[in-house]
RNA sequence: GCCGGCGUAGCUCAGCGGUAGAGCAGCGGUUUCGUAAACCGCAGGUCAAGGGUUCGAAUCCCCUCGCCGGCUCCA
């Protein structure tokens, strides 16, 4: 559904082989589970881009020991190199064959009559399956079971919860080991771990889950990101606005949030007999600003931007570090414009987006265009025009994208951009959404050249998505080693002995005088390597005598003694280039 | 919210029925040393909260809260 704009995916043939192998591994696993748990009801067992899984309903939860036993049985099946045999069967045969398997029966029931049913058999295990598979179990070169998790049957929380076992398989032990190594690397880059290690932010039980405190170093990073955001928006002619964190029930009634979004909102507060809600979105406030005066077509487009902190109730099980929280700051903007301006406005947003992404070193992303869902507001022409505008803007920048048919919001079509971090994981950040709903609800208008009142087009957009998530993505992307311009501490001055302390302080003062964030580390233990400080300046007798510092970079590169002025110049140059 | 796992000092973790330990960080001394962790000492914990079983619970059971992996949902 989504296409990768640029990328370093394994080639199609290899991916296809992996998918076949993983799918086969899923069968082998199901076979093993049924041997150990004859009562097991089996769900589905597909391959994925990273591995495979199979869902089971068993009398008790799987334990880690079960996984080991299952894996051993799988290894036996693989050693026996059992062939996979495909058979086309009739509906009657299928219903009979799987009469003990309620989930399979349901699947059979849901397959349209005109479609062929087939089974794949290896050893004594038969599964309803379209394939394809590898020729025999022996072709599964390297396999490993990873973990167990609960999963609703058919992803529906009203249906039974099954036990899902995840595993992966590769064409060689080497490739599997590489994958496992990558998982370890990913763990080291986990923003929650780095956030703690680098003392950037905190989440405290007594404050509340999903609520972030930014510690000084994280706060520094955030403020730099925000300053850059401000610059970018100045360049692109946005007006920055501010709005409060709460608003009266009446506002949310008009916007429709109390009807459609209430479950995601914090409970109201009573103030002087009025109910006030914490804002889950900024739009109604920006709309009130728009409505504060009669608008002329000459004023359009109007672009209101705000780093607006919103609060949403997220179910406890979905919270995740900075990526998924209950209070977050959207880099929000609302564009009010004429229909004929819309395409250029979207183009402007795309240009800003890619300017920002390249500044932070992201080159891998995927773009999707989501079109009209069944339930929607607004008329056909509006949807068509808006969707075309989005597509044309993408085409004008030669951007590849996938189409998510019917995936738009009920109030308008949208473009979403997911960023891939350094480990290939995707995070939704940028979103550009048309809104045919709120302008009506708030009766937005402008006076046209014809003297009549007209409804403006309204576009929501966020580029970083939320500052919290974006910094989280940055942390993982850089593995905590922020480029110089973003580093909370840019240079750590390290005196050799106490008699060098005074000189170290002077060096620090000179750095600070040139707007470089320097610190003196007078501790005995030097933890700077762990703290990922980009420049480490060692000062001892010889440096003190020559107005220099011995420079070691975070990368391990040693520059030897460098004059302080030269160093400041070099660093400032690097900072300006955001290198 | 649901399924499973987990919750011991600021951090990483050991202890898993007899009443709390290590390393790092912190503090005080000593050392003044060339590019991540010097030496000696000190302090730090109602073992997430509450309830129960037991002569005795960090260790077993229940419940609440929180975290982790998924499912669902999403910036």
Explained architecture:
This protein has 579 residues and is an alpha+beta fold. The protein folds into four domains: 12-189, Threonyl-trna Synthetase, Chain A, domain 2 (Threonyl-tRNA Synthetase, Chain A, domain 2, 2-Layer Sandwich); 201-243 and 282-476, BirA Bifunctional Protein, domain 2 (2-Layer Sandwich), CATH 3.30.930; 246-278, no CATH class; 484-576, Anticodon-binding domain (Rossmann fold). The protein is built from 18 helices and 28 strands. The strands form seven sheets. Strands 1, 11, 15, 16, 17, 18, 19, 20 and 23 form a nine-stranded mixed sheet that branches. Strands 25-24-26-27-28 form a five-stranded mixed sheet. Helix 1 (12-36) packs across helix 2, helix 6 (191-197) packs across helix 14 (467-478) and helix 11 (342-359) crosses helix 12. The radius of gyration is 29 Å and the shape is globular. The two termini are 34 Å apart. The model is unreliable at 1-8 (pLDDT under 50). The structure holds one RNA strand of 75 nucleotides.
